[in-house]
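Hey L., structure's done. Input below.
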Amino acid sequence: MVGAVAVEIERVDPALRDATQKLARTDPSKAWMRTVLRLATRVMPVPRTEAVSVSTVRSGRQGLRLYQPDRRAGNSALLWIHGGGLLFGDARQDEVLCAETARELGIPVFSANYRFAPEHPFPAALDDVHAAWHWVRIHAAGLGVDPDRIVVGGESAGAGLAASLVQLLHDHGGAQPVAQWLFAPMIDDRTAVDESLDALDHWVWNNRINRVGWGGYLGGRLGQNDPPPYAAAARRTDLSDLPPAYLAVGDIELFFAENQDYARRLAEAGTEVHLDVVPGAPHGFENWGRDTAPARALMKRARGWLREVLARPDEGRLDRP
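Output:
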């Protein structure tokens, strides 16, 4: 994670300041640091969440971490995609968020791993989460899940992949996700090429590191006028007929403007969207600051929104021929 200089600590919500200032500084632009981060997230110790069982299954090249609540409420499920700037990360880093969501909503959560840039550029990561979607649908019945009642969600780069996956599934036709649950999605490579943002040195994830992530993923296509379809979700022009979207973002983080614009365009296209802007919240605080009041409040709102969407009758579900 990357600290801040020009973004003053006074802009951070007082309830988040201590946690923010304790964040370690890392630089994933360096290959050796990416190696360290990848290893660390794969072996990091994870807390146990009461009333939730955790297991790992294989999905093609990658693994899925499965969170099964002891008490079920319905037959829906969530496919979750972790963050890491497209450069590193692991399903284990979101252990508490996924396990508590499984327990609070009474649904299984499948947390997907995927390959990283720059060694595996676009569309490798998207291909992997697409394969995870199919794995969940194929194995749904045996896990007590309706294959047509799956939510797609994620955080940061994972939320960006989730948004792209939703678009890909829309265009391929057939069963669609019932909702998209997005936390500070990394969705627009044009942010990375805007060097005027570099001086802000945003807390946790700044634009210099953002450029490394997007550059590794897109290579020479970074910032071009005609990026490949599904490479960056915000580049899509037609945002109509997509599943309901929940989008949470802090108002002092790098992705605020691109997330706000994406939510506006979704609404203008007639797609149901709920934009939850958290004042004074740095990137990813719902995870690394999960014990703070702002993070707890956000997750309560987010899970409340998802619970309401999942309670809707199937007649409202999107399917495409």
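Residues 242 and 271 are 6 Å apart (CA to CA). DSSP finds ten helices and ten strands in the chain.

-- N.
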